[in-house]
Amino acid sequence: MRVFVLRVAALGDTVCTVPLVGALVALGHHVTVCAPGRLHPLLPSGVTALDSDGALGSALYAGRADLSSYDVGVAWTSIGGDALRACGARDVRVGAPRPRVGQHAVDMVFEPVADLVVGAPREPKIVASSAAVAAARRRVPDGVVVLVPGSGGAAKRVPLDAWREVARTVGAPVVWVRGPVERGEAGWGAPCLDDLDIIGLIGLAAVCRAWLGVDSGPSHLARAVGARVGVVFTGATDPASWAPPGAVVFGPTTGPGDWARWAAS
Q1: Domains with residue ranges and CATH for the chain
Q2: Containing H/E element for 74?
Q3: pLDDT tens for residues 55-69?
Q4: b (16+ CB within 10 A) / e for 120-158
């Protein structure tokens, strides 16, 4: 079948969509994914990737794109579903934009097309290229612990004082990673990388000793690459829905000493 996947989402949501896309491709379906161009490196090989931020995205939401050749269209917003229908996609399926209580985000992504991928593995897997790994090794020392305190949601964050304590006590080289939202903030440690694109993040995740962050997209990405990932949850979000599969979860009653001991282990 020809399947059109409309996933205009942030980094973490896109990582949670990777296993579904991979499963559809593995079953022999022709899969087109319309997603932000900067996130295309996350997509499995064999996918036709279209930029939702480009002209096609504008045409799609205006109902001017021709999707009549697609057997199935899937989106996770009502606006996205309406756009797929207006553009002629057949059998449009619309999933929920957020998981139910206790439902993991990956399972939410699978739900609208679960009948097409019965029994498919659901843990996100992203392979770092040799070039990405080599570039990361040139920038960071061996055995580095990566600290990623930032998030687009302020309630998910922990004061930077706690992260500086981790950096002081972990007993390993540390590098901080700062995203676009946090650039210009004071109080971050050094060295601090704030110029990493998706490929750069993938490479760093592949070479680090441990990756410690909050509930944010980079935590999902690092775990999908295979890094040892610890995620600090403040209580603003539910780990049952948003903890990356296989990550260590630190709840609100833990502190920087607990995080540092884990990272150093």
Answers
A1: 2-116 (3.40.50.2000), 130-264 (3.40.50.2000)
A2: strand 72-75
A3: 989 999 999 999 999
A4: eebebebebeeebbebbeeebeeebbbbbbbbeeeebbb
Among candidates 173, 214, 191, which has minimal Cα distance to 12?
A: 214
Q: Which residues pair with 230 in a beta bridge?
A: 212, 248
Residues 6 or more apart in contact with residue 191 via CB below 8 angstroms? 175, 176
DSSP structure string for 218-230: HHHHHHHHT--EE
96: which 2 tokens? Answer: 């929920």
Tokens of 175: 């590098």
Percent of the chain past pLDDT 90, that is, above it, reads 97
Say what the pTM is: 0.96
Count CB atoms within 10 A of the CB of residue 62. 11
